[in-house]
Design brief:
By secondary structure, the protein is α/β, with parallel strands linked by helices. The protein has helices at residues 42-50, 57-73, 80-95, 102-117, 123-152, 179-188, 205-216, 229-234, 260-270, 301-304, 345-353; strands at residues 14-16, 22-25, 36-39, 161-164, 194-198, 221-224, 240-243, 247-248, 254-257, 274-277, 305-306, 309-310, 323-326, 333-336, 339-341. It has two domains: 14-146, Up-down Bundle (Four Helix Bundle (Hemerythrin (Met), subunit A)); 152-353, Rossmann fold. Helix 1 packs antiparallel against helix 2, helix 2 (57-73) packs parallel to helix 4 (102-117) and helix 2 runs antiparallel to helix 5 (123-152).
Length: 360
Amino acid sequence: MPPGDSGEMPLKPIEWTAEATIRLLDQRMLPHQEVWVECRDFPSVLSAIRDMLIRGAPALAIAAAMGLALGAQALPEEDPGAFAAGFRALAEEMGKTRPTARNLFWAIERMARVVQESQSLSIPMLKERLIQEALAIAEEDLRTNLKLSELGKALIPRGARILTHCNAGALATGGHGTALGVIRSAFAEGNPILVYVDETRPYLQGSRLTAWELMQDQIPMVLITDSMAGYFMAKGEIDLVLVGADRVAANGDTANKIGTYSLSVLCRAHRIPFYVAAPLSSFDPSTANGAEIVIEQRGEDEVRCVQGVLVAPAGARAANPAFDITPGDQISGFITERGILRPPYHQSIPEALGISSLKA
């Protein structure tokens, strides 16, 4: 069913089924095919995350939580100590899948707390409790997206021309989206916006996924290559840039899909607002700044090839950092479920997180 604010159920790229399996929309196949994959065991969930069947920081949190709940079902029930040790091993394996996305680790930590705080339960009851926690994480993510989108749409001028990068829509979350959710909510209210969509090389999340979502909702859009952003800014055809986030450090430095940093530099040069839309689960108060964020390095063939077709000389070396860091001082504001966070971020971030101070 198409995502949107039309009163229909929003698209959800990941679901827990009545048969205790995990159903995923294979995002590698979009926009040409809508293929759903069923994960019946823990290793298949790990593979789905690593192989990008599912991606997007909030969606990875849901996948991690559901994956741990699924993996826990196969753990022995006779010995609580063995169950706890087995769950720790599952959590460790899950943490190795995508190192940059804070939300994934946030979900792992939350599921681990359930095990730690439920020692009085029988193991069968604890297994059911883990399923309920995973479902709660998915439901909360959708509510969070709707809330931050409602708050964020006030930042969108009427008729704004918005540039977005990568995919921060329903496909990247539990539904509706973060950056694309703000766009979706603004359009649903009657704002005649136009969205410029960066193709987002090398994995083409913009051209394959964001363009698909916008067209499903009939939101006016123009697809451009990543290298065209400066051209359109110089012509005065971009009013603001709106992106998502995979991890936000204590000082506001933000990891997002490779190419985001370049857009922030262009925005500063052209005096264009640059906003990040992200749930508070993307904020990492234990990381002081962007230099401490681990950047995932992916395979060279993602750069050498486009949709499996070689576009470079055979054997050419390629670099493929999946993310880059945008300094906090180049971000106009963070759109969260608790409001718009403004500089100085060493004050606004802890306020939003409800903590007294952040890592120095």
